[in-house]
């Protein structure tokens, strides 16, 4: 499709604004949807987004084709729908967008976290959706970015390589052919179990936030999250969580990347251990900590990342006491039950599937429940 591809970006937060502006500057027709009209009023008035970036990175004014809070208009005008919202909103987007999706469209979740494409497909299926749409997910978000104002965005870094997988994975090549003219960084992510279990946000975000809870509350996040927040002791706990994730993946027949491998792939950074590798990553410098514990690193990443991985561990016989401890801490601090709210295998509709059946579903699309 090349630059004739029409993109709709769903979500006008930090990431959505950066993606919409960058796609426009690359020469693509871009539509931007956000459910709250007030949130995109300035963008609509200006007709686009002003993008700033790191030295040598993309910058300029990204003109947008449609800026709307009407999801039908946004979805119908797209060949590719880029969903850039917290994963806790994926199910709601699937319910609202489902009736307007049509044959041949591609939906990409940026990122899916863990089980995103599975959840999105199940919500559409349960609502009676019949369109032949390809749901896919990125393993992580391609940008480190922030919003600089109502119609401004800033990119700190663009990852060098980001795995992407379609559901089923026999359609991944088709998705990549459409996406790569805009984003050559996307590579074959094998299948959505691989992208979901290689979810590094599950390892880095909740534990790092909770272990710095006192500092976040006392300084309102006035410190460098990854640089000041990842001390040697914190890094050791992150390594334990990472080993648990890799073990769950192994139970499903998947050789998952370690956090060290991922840092090398995404950022070409290395070190003798996780503490050193994180501190060797230039893109992490300057990124402040959350200014509150009421942050997506907990209310999104715990139920949409840690809970599904721990749920897989329970189903397929793996001990994940570290993850369960982090989930429990989050439940206590937020006074909520993230197990009930999270993406358990039952919510994803795959709790009765054997490893073989689950693998066949994500690879070939055969599903019997």
Summarize this structure briefly.
This protein is an alpha/beta fold and 369 residues long.
Description:
This protein has helices at residues 14-25, 41-46, 71-76, 90-97, 116-126, 172-179, 192-197, 200-211, 213-219, 225-229, 232-251, 259-267, 274-279, 296-299, 301-316, 321-334, 338-341, 345-348, 355-364; strands spanning 6-10, 29-33, 48-53, 60-63, 66-68, 80-83, 106-109, 134-138, 143-149, 152-158, 162-167, 186-188. It is of the alpha/beta class and 369 residues long. It has two domains: 2-197, Rossmann fold; 200-364, N-(1-d-carboxylethyl)-l-norvaline Dehydrogenase, domain 2. The strands form two sheets. The protein has an eight-stranded mixed sheet with strand order 5-2-1-6-7-8-11-12, sandwiched between helices. A four-stranded mixed sheet has the order 4-3-10-9. Helix 5 (116-126) links the parallel strand 7 and strand 8 (134-138). It starts with 5 loop residues before the first strand and ends in a 5-residue tail after the last helix. The model has no long low-confidence stretch (mean pLDDT 95).
User: Largest beta sheet: what is the strand line-up?
Assistant: 5-2-1-6-7-8-11-12
Please indicate the percent range of residues in DSSP E strands (runs of 2 or more): 15-25%
Number of H- or I-type helical stretches: 19
Number of domains: 2
Q: Provide the CATH topology of the largest domain.
A: Rossmann fold
The parts where pLDDT drops under 50 for at least 5 residues are none
CATH superfamily of the largest domain: NAD(P)-binding Rossmann-like Domain
Find the structural class using helix and strand composition: alpha/beta
> Helix proportion of residues, in percent?
40-55%
User: Whole-number radius of gyration?
Assistant: 19 Å
Terminal Cα span: 36 Å
Q: Look at the structure and give the CATH class of the largest domain.
A: Alpha Beta
Got a strand count?
12
The mean pLDDT is: 95
Largest sheet: 8 strands, mixed
CATH architecture of the largest domain: 3-Layer(aba) Sandwich
What is the multimeric organization of the chains shown? single chain
Spatial shape: globular
């Amino acid at each position: 499709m090349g630059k004739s591809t029409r993109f709709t970006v769903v979500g006008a937060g930090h990431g959505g604004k950066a993606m919409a502006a960058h796609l426009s500057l690359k020469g693509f027709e871009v539509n931007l949807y956000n459910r709250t009209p007030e949130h995109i009023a300035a963008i609509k008035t200006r007709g686009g987004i002003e993008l700033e970036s790191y030295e040598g990175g993309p910058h300029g004014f990204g003109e947008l084709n449609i800026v709307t809070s009407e999801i039908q208009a946004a979805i119908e005008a797209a060949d590719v729908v880029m969903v850039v919202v917290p994963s806790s909103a994926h199910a709601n987007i699937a319910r609202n967008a489902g009736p307007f999706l049509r044959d041949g469209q591609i939906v990409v979740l940026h990122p899916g976290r863990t089980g995103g494409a599975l959840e999105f497909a199940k919500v559409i299926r349960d609502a009676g959706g019949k369109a032949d749409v390809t749901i896919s997910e990125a393993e992580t978000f391609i940008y480190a970015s922030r919003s600089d104002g109502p119609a401004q965005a800033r990119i700190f870094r663009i990852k060098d390589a980001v795995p992407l997988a379609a559901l089923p994975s026999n359609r991944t090549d088709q998705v990549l052919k459409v996406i790569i003219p805009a984003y050559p960084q996307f590579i074959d992510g094998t299948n959505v179990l691989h992208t979901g279990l290689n979810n590094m946000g599950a390892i880095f975000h909740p534990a790092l936030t909770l272990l710095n809870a006192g500092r976040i509350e006392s300084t309102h996040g006035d410190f460098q999250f990854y640089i000041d927040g990842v001390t040697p002791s914190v890094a050791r706990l992150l390594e334990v969580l990472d080993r648990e994730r890799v073990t769950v993946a192994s139970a499903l027949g998947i050789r998952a990347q370690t956090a060290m491998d991922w840092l090398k792939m995404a950022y070409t950074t290395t070190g003798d251990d996780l503490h050193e590798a994180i501190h060797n990553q230039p893109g992490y410098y300057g990124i402040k900590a959350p200014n509150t514990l009421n942050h997506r690193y907990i209310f999104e990443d715990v139920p949409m990342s840690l809970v599904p991985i721990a749920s897989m561990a329970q189903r397929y016989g793996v001990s994940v006491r570290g993850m369960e401890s982090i989930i429990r801490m989050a439940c206590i601090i937020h006074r909520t039950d993230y197990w009930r709210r999270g993406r358990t295998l039952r919510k994803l509709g795959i709790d009765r599937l054997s490893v073989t059946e689950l693998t066949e579903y994500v690879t070939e699309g055969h599903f019997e429940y």
